[in-house]
Amino acid sequence: SQQGEEDPQALSIQEGENATMNCSYKTSINNLQWYRQNSGRGLVHLILIRSNEREKHSGRLRVTLDTSKKSSSLLITASRAADTASYFCATAPNNNDMRFGAGTRLTVKP
Amino acid sequence: DGGITQSPKYLFRKEGQNVTLSCEQNLNHDAMYWYRQDPGQGLRLIYYSQIVNDFQKGDIAEGYSVSREKKESFPLTVTSAQKNPTAFYLCASSIAGPTSGYTFGSGTRLTVV
Question: Side-chain half-sphere of A97: how many Cα atoms within 13 Å?
């Protein structure tokens, strides 16, 4: 069963703009993770935010977490054409395994 | 370099055949996972293993089987009982389960011919 849902399903922006993707989940978590997938490739881990954290940064990435609303957002600043990929949020509802949403497909036009 | 290797990259299966997808990691990770991805969709968990000689069913285990005889290896067999096996299969490993990030292989694309 899917745990997270990303919104929007698809996002198209111009290079240099910021991209914001949202994730909602259903059960309590101890962390939430964001991954990136280039077409036809495996997923790459981007960032992990723990349930007691509200915001985390990594380079051009900023992740927020609101446990009261069971939601998270991923912001990519100053986007580049190379950021074109699908982005997934993932949570662990039972501490044994991780469940992924359907992803947001981001297209950054040069 | 440490990493996780899936092979083959592409695999074609005739109806009624069993096929085995390989997943090997040299990261010394205890936990390993198999996911299935269909076009435009998220990942669905097939099986996972938290330790050698032990594994658990995920959400869509029917028609699949796994083994975990060595820490480094977690092969997935797609049996003839899996009626719709055409998909992209991803293997992942983790040092500490969902409390840490997963490392993914580059995937195997399985097609039924």
Answer: 24
Please name the amino acid found at residue A35.
Y
Sole residue written with tokens 């658990």: B56
Indicate the helix (H) or strand (E) that contains B23: strand B19-25
Residue A88's DSSP bridge partners are A35
Q: Which of A26-35, A73-82, B31-40, B75-84 has the highest mean pLDDT?
A: A73-82
Q: Which residues are B50's β-sheet partners?
A: none
- Find the closest chain B residue to A42 by CA distance: B106
Interface touch B98/A95, C-beta < 8 Å: yes
Give the closest of B45, B56, B106 to A99, CB-based: B45
B38, closest residue in chain A (CA to CA): A102
CA distance B41 to B21: 21
**C-alpha–C-alpha distance, residues A106 and A21, integer Å:** 9
Query: Residue A33: its chain B contacts at CB < 8 A?
Result: 101-102
Given B41, B97, B102, which is nearest A45 (Cβ)? B102
pLDDT confidence band for B20 (50 / 70 / 90): very high
Kindly tell me the burial class for residue A96, based on how many C-beta atoms sit within 10 Å of its own C-beta (0-12, 13-18, 19 or more). middle
Residue A94 has pLDDT above 60, yes or no: yes
Burial class of residue A64 (count of CB atoms within 10 Å of its CB; 0-12, 13-18, 19+) = middle
Tell me if B90 and A42 make a contact (CB, 8 A cut-off).
yes
